[in-house]
Amino acid sequence: MTKKILILPGDGIGPEIVAEAVKLLDCLRADFGLAVETETALVGGAAYDDCGLPLPESTLDLAKSADAVLLGAVGGPKWEPLEIALRPEKGLLGLRAGLGLFANLRPAILYPQLAEASTLKPEVVAGLDIMIVRELTGGIYFGQPRGVETLASGERRGINTLVYTESEIERICRVAFDTAMRRNRRLCSVDKANVLECTELWREVAIRVGRDYPEVELSHMYVDNAAMQLVRAPKQFDVMVTTNMFGDILSDAAAMLTGSIGMLPSASLNAENQGMYEPIHGSAPDIAGQGVANPLATILSVAMMLRYSLSAPEHADRIEQAVSKVLNQGLRTGDIAAPGTTAVGTAAMGDAVLEAI
Amino acid sequence: MTKKILILPGDGIGPEIVAEAVKLLDCLRADFGLAVETETALVGGAAYDDCGLPLPESTLDLAKSADAVLLGAVGGPKWEPLEIALRPEKGLLGLRAGLGLFANLRPAILYPQLAEASTLKPEVVAGLDIMIVRELTGGIYFGQPRGVETLASGERRGINTLVYTESEIERICRVAFDTAMRRNRRLCSVDKANVLECTELWREVAIRVGRDYPEVELSHMYVDNAAMQLVRAPKQFDVMVTTNMFGDILSDAAAMLTGSIGMLPSASLNAENQGMYEPIHGSAPDIAGQGVANPLATILSVAMMLRYSLSAPEHADRIEQAVSKVLNQGLRTGDIAAPGTTAVGTAAMGDAVLEAI
Lengths: 357, 357
Ligand SMILES: CC(C)[C@H](C(=O)O)[C@@H](O)C(=O)O
Ligand SMILES: CC(C)[C@H](C(=O)O)[C@@H](O)C(=O)O
Hints:
The structure is a homodimer.
Chain A: E1 3-10, H1 14-32, E2 36-40, H2 45-51, H3 57-65, E3 68-73, H4 88-99, E4 103-109, H5 122-125, E5 129-135, E6 147-150, E7 156-165, H6 166-181, E8 186-191, H7 197-210, E9 217-222, H8 223-232, E10 239-242, H9 244-257, E11 265-269, E12 275-279, H10 296-308, H11 313-328, E13 331-332, E14 342-343, H12 346-356
Parallel strand pairs in A: 1-2, 1-3, 3-12, 5-10, 8-9, 8-10, 13-14
Antiparallel strand pairs in A: 4-5, 4-11, 6-7, 11-12
The structure holds 3-isopropylmalic acid (IPM) (2 copies).
C-alpha cells in the first residue's frame, strides 16, 4: 500500500534542505520501489505570511491523514515581534499536539568521520551514541493556566504551569524502556525530584514502569547534574528520558557534544507510530537561501521515518550507509568543514547521497 | 565593628571543607586584624537528624542576625526517602527564601593551572570567565499551586508553577547589569520566550531595565540554544542572567566546562548585600569523612563573602592569591589530580592556603 508523506519545508533553510530529502524519496521510489507519495504544505512563518496563521487547518488535516510528516524547520527574526500565539513555533507545537506526538526521539551520535568537529576532547566523545527520549505534548509547554496577568497593584505577573498526569508519564517511560531494550538496556530518568513535586511523581512512575522491564537498568539523575554529566562523561549514558522542557535543553546540549548538529535527525511519534521527522537544528535564517546548509540531518530524518513510521528499515539502512559513504569520500558542507576535505553546497551534498545510493 | 558569620557545615563533605574555611577565618582574624566572629548551627540532613526539621527556626534566626552565612553542602541518599518538605534541600531553599537571597552569583572560571582538567579542548575554554546571575527566590522553585493531586478518575497529577512578577525580574536584572558594568559589559538574558509567556515577560523587563544601562550590550538567547552555545563556544559569554530553574541547569553545565567544580564558589545575596556563600559542588556523600574533598571552593566562597558582604576586598584578594599560589606549587586534591602534581588531602590543602597567606 502506498504511504503518504506530508512535506513541510517551513522557514529559513527549511525549503533548501527538504528539497534534498524529496530528491532522495523520489529516487527511492523510482529506483528501489519504495511505495510513497508526497504532498507539500505550509507551516510556521511561511504559513503565517500566507494566511496569518502558523498552522492552517488544512495543513493539520493533511498531517493527520498522512502516514508521516517531514518538517524542515520553523522560525526566524522576522516573526519574533509577533505574539506567542502567532509565532512560527506555535505551528510546530500545534502539529505536536494535534497529532499527539508525545514521544520525541533525539539521537546524539558522533560520526567517527567528524570526530574533530566536537569541542570536547576526542577520548571524551569518541563513539558517543545517546538516545534522548523527550516527552513532547505535555509539561510546561502545554500546561494551564498560562499567560501574563495584571495584579491589583498594577504590576504584571507571568505564569506557566508544569503539569503531568501519571498516564502521560507512564506512556513516555514505556517508549523509553522499549528503546533501551533495543539498545544497551540502560535508562537514566532525569528529573528535579528534590524540588519539584511534579517530577517527584515522574520518578515514582518511572520506577513503577521499570518493574515491567527487569532487564533494563534504571537510574535517576537531577537535571542540573545531568547537564554536568553530559559535559563531564557523556558516554556513561545509553537512553535518557525526561520532561518536555528538560528534554529541550538536554537534547540540545547532548547534540552539541558531537560538534555537528547539522547531522542529527529526530523523530516525534504518537501511539500509532505515526510520526513527524525533522533535523534538530533550527531554521538558520543567517544562511537561508545561500545553498550552503547541510541537508544530511534532514536526509537522516527520512531514514528515521522509514524505520519508525513506514516499516521500511531496508531503505533506512540504505540511506544511512550512503551518508556514511559521502562522509568517507570527504564531502563536507560548511558547518562540518575541516582541513583536507572537499567543500560542497546543499544540492551537491544531496546529489552525492543519491549517487552513493 | 565586628561582623558576624554563621557557619553551617551541613552534610556529607560539608563539615570537612567548612573546617578549612574556619581555620582560614581564624588566621585572618589573628594575624591580619579581620574583625569577625563566628557561630555554628545545623541545617539540612544534619538538622533533620537532630530535631526532625531541615531548617530549625533557631538556625534561620541566627542566619538573619548574621552579616553573612557560610554553608558547606546539604543532602545525601540517606534522606532521599523523605518527603520533599523534610529533605535537606528544603533547608537550603528555606534559607534562600527566609533571607530573601534573590541573587545567586555563580562564576565559572577556568584556572590556568587546571586547564587540563576540562573535558573540552584547551582552545575552547582557555581563559574562560563567565558570571551566571541566577534568580534564586522565585520561579518554579517557589510558585503556587504545587503538589500532587488525585483526579476524579483516580489518576494522580503533579503540578508546579512558574511565576515571576515584573519587580522580581527587574531586581535580578539590575544585579546582572551592575555585574556586567564591573566586567566586560556584555549581558545575555536567557529565556524561553518563544514558548513560555512567563519568560516573554522576563525578556520584556530585561529590555526595559537595559535602557538604564546604555553601556551594557544586552542580548537574548533561548535556553536550549544557551545550553548548546555553552558547549560550542563558551567564551562568547561575559554575564548571563536567567530564571531559578534555567540558572540551576546552565550554571552547573558552565561550571563543568572548567572540569574542576571543586574550585568554584558562589554567592547568594539579598537587597542589603547580606549573603550566603557556598561551594557549587554538592555534599559528595561517596567521599564524605575520608579527608580527601577539595576545600578550595569553600575557601574561595569566603573570599566572595569578604568582597560582597563584609566590605573587606583586601582580604578577598589575599585569599585568591593564596589559592593561586598553592595551585602553582602543584598541590592538588583528588578531584583535580594530574600527572606531575602533588596529591594532598583536605586538611593539607587548607594548611597550604594558610601558609601561602
Ligand atoms: C522551536 C521550539 C518551539 C522547539 C521546542 O522548544 O520544542 C525547538 O527548540 C525544539 O526543540 O524542537
Ligand atoms: C540542592 C538543590 C535544591 C539546589 C538547587 O536546585 O537550587 C542545588 O542544585 C543548587 O544549585 O544550589
